[in-house]
Amino acid sequence: MTSQERRVLDAIDQELLLALLGDLVAIESLGGRETPAQEYMARQMEALGFAVDTWTLDLDRLRQHPAYTVEIERDEALGVVGRIGSGDGPTLVLNGHVDVVPAGERDRWSHPPFAATVEAGKVYGRGTADMKGALCCALMAMEAVQAAGVSLAGTVLLQSVVGEEDGGLGTLAAVERGYRGDAAIVMEPTELMVAPAQAGAFNFRVTVPGVAAHGALRTEGVDPIDAFIPLYRALQAFERERNRAVSDPLFVDYDVPFALCVGTLRAGIWASTVAESLVFEGRLGVGPHEDAAQVRRAFEDVLQDAAHQDAWLRDHPPTVEWWGAQFLPAH
User: Fold this and answer.
1) Sequence-ordered list of residues with C-beta below 8 angstroms from that of 183, at least 6 positions apart, any chain
2) pLDDT at 331 over 90
3) Which phi and psi angles does 135 have, rounded to 5°?
4) CA 261 to CA 310: how far, in whole Å?
5) Going edge to edge, which strands form the sheet with 183-186?
6) Does the structure show a pLDDT above 80 at 87?
7) From CA 14, how far away is CA 282, in angstroms rounded?
8) In degrees rounded to 5, what are phi and psi of residue 328?
9) Which CA distances in Å does 88 have to 95, 151, 156, 181?
């Protein structure tokens, strides 16, 4: 380690880092409600002496962009980018998001989800890993460079973004505003390993039709739950086949490198009525070596083939929508 690197490490304020993380975790920045967290990030960047750009996202314009995907429609959103450095030379982008997913059943948490609890050398709380901890580390790393008196040959940009969990709206907005670099580090938790490749992920929604009937006369209806089961089995087989021959050394250690997950399942409106339809939603993983459009078509073909084996679905096939987050793979 050089003396300059040692000075920077020694300049990191651990107490302030934990204080910032505690403040940020306490802000319940669920998707669509990120503005208070973004305002907090902007204030901290300014307090640390960064050059800061805070702007209101033009959501109507962004919706026209071919890379725009969301699961949560927003009425407002803020972009925040902090900058240190000379402005000359190369630019390094650090990217992190303030939005978090819901905490789920709070009585199952061993610590309060929206409070940073330090215990046995670990910090607990929603977003501490994904990824408010990384944002605070970036803040303090950039501050340490300044405090150590290091003169940068180029520029470091910290993009604090919204909407990562549901499609990447905030990063798209930052890039469209001109905040690009010669290299970028997306500070997602990776067990502190450099991850030079990223699988893609595409949200899907499948609607399976049925015919409603009173529960006492259920045979007069068509239960879409019965129809769903062979479709689901076909998708499980599709996942196994696609992952059987993965040889990329960056992915071979995963049990299922490019997983297919059904995350929600909804059917019916009344306990004593045969459901009129069933909707299931999920996420299709795609490898960096794969053509995303071809994989999506293969998914649709699997459903079509499975539906053709069913007398009802043959004439009333399920419909597929690609909605919400649509992340291309990268290598």
Assistant:
1) 90, 91, 92, 93
2) no
3) -60, -45
4) 23
5) 51-56, 78-85, 155-161, 91-97, 183-186
6) no
7) 40
8) -75, 150
9) 20, 11, 11, 12
Question: In angstroms, how far is CA 53 from the centroid of its own chain?
Answer: 24
pLDDT, residue 321, reads: 97
| Range list of β-strands (E), 256-318 | 260-267, 273-274, 277-286
Mean confidence (pLDDT) of the chain: 95
Note the pLDDT of residue 180: 96
Both tokens of residue 175? 């890039």
- What gap in Å lies between CA 36 and CA 120, rounded to an integer? 30
pTM: 0.87
Contact indicator for 81, 174 with CB cutoff of 8 Å: yes
pLDDT at 192: 85
Of 48, 139, 134, 73, whose CA–CA distance to 98 is shortest?
A: 134
pLDDT band at 245 (very low <50, low <70, confident <90, very high): confident
Active site members: 99, 164
Q: Which tens digits make up the pLDDT trace of 155-210?
A: 999 999 999 999 999 999 999 999 999 999 999 998 888 899 999 999 999 999 99
* Dihedral Cα 134, 127, 163, 94, nearest 10 deg: 0
Calculate the alpha carbon distances from 90 to 218, 233, 322 in Å.
68, 50, 38
In Å, how far are 49, 195, 251, 288 from 329, measured between CA atoms?
36, 13, 13, 5
Residues 6 or more apart from 7 whose CB is under 8 A from it? 148, 149, 150
